[in-house]
Structure formats: structure tokens, C-alpha cells
């Protein structure tokens, strides 16, 4: 396909590549500082409720109903198809998971008839904290393993 020897001057492009890498790293750090991490329910704890509607569900209306019921921070999204909805609610010290799910189901049924609860899961903050800690340790061990591999495979100075 290519005729002749193809040479690419990688060393001549190193300053551009380093500047681009630095820019992307700084943009990532700024995004992390400004927006933070969006941990899922597995890490933060809370209640996950899956409900089914007889017809396609309107997410904006569901969010409004949940906000009126006292859950303005609930995350609502379609799950599977347009009739199934997944609701995530942050943990509350004042309410148990069973109370939260019943209260949400009552609010949804008051707005739309035929709403059916498919599944309720509760993850306590202790479990979420443990998962976060275990995930951090796993990343640390992986980084150490990579550094050891590079030190043994190439030269020691490349692993630092």
C-alpha cells in the first residue's frame, strides 16, 4: 500500500504532544475539582426502586411527583424499555428503606394507576464505604504491579 520507507518524526512532535497531554490532564483535574465524582448507589448507599408502568412513563412527570413527595434529589431513568423506570434515592437517617419505597410507590400510584413495583434494593452507607475503600486499594495494587513490571522489563528509571 505504501511505497518506500515511511518515517514519522516523533521526536520533532514531542513538545506538541507534551503540551496536549498537559492540557488534557489539567482539564481533567479541573473537571474533577469543579464537578466532583458521581458515585453510584453502590458506593454512596441508598435505595434503588424499579417500577413498571402500564404505558410509556414520562420521566419529567415522575420527577415532579417525587419532588412533591419530598424526594427532590431522586434520580429517575428508563430501565429496559419506556414502561420501566429506575429510581435511586440517597439514604436518609429519618426513614428506613422500606418506608422510602412505600412512600414513593404511594406517590406514584396517586398520580398514575397501575404502577407496579418490580424490585427494591437497599445499600447501606457502610457497604458503600467498604466498596470505595476496596476499589481504592485495588487501584493502588494495580499501579504498584505496573511499576514493578516496567522496572523489571525495561529500565528502573522508566518505572518512576
Brief rundown of the structure:
The chain has 160 residues and is of the alpha+beta class.
Could you explain the architecture of this structure?
With 160 residues, the protein is α+β, with helices and mostly antiparallel strands. The chain has two domains: 13-37 and 127-159, no CATH class; 46-123, Alpha-Beta Plaits (2-Layer Sandwich). The protein has five helices and four strands, in the order ααβαββαβα. It has helices spanning 14-35, 41-44, 59-68, 97-111, 125-153; strands spanning 46-52, 75-79, 81-89, 116-123. It has a four-stranded antiparallel β-sheet with strand order 2-3-1-4. The chain is elongated, with a radius of gyration of 25 Å.
User: Which CATH architecture of the largest domain would you pick?
Assistant: 2-Layer Sandwich
**Strand order in the largest sheet:** 2-3-1-4
Number of domains: 2
Shape: elongated
Give the amount of beta strand, in percent: 15-25%
* H/E topology pattern: HHEHEEHEH
Low-pLDDT segments = none
Largest sheet: 4 strands, antiparallel
Distance between the termini: 40 Å
Helix residue percentage: 40-55%
User: What's the CATH first level of the largest domain?
Assistant: Alpha Beta
Radius of gyration: 25 Å
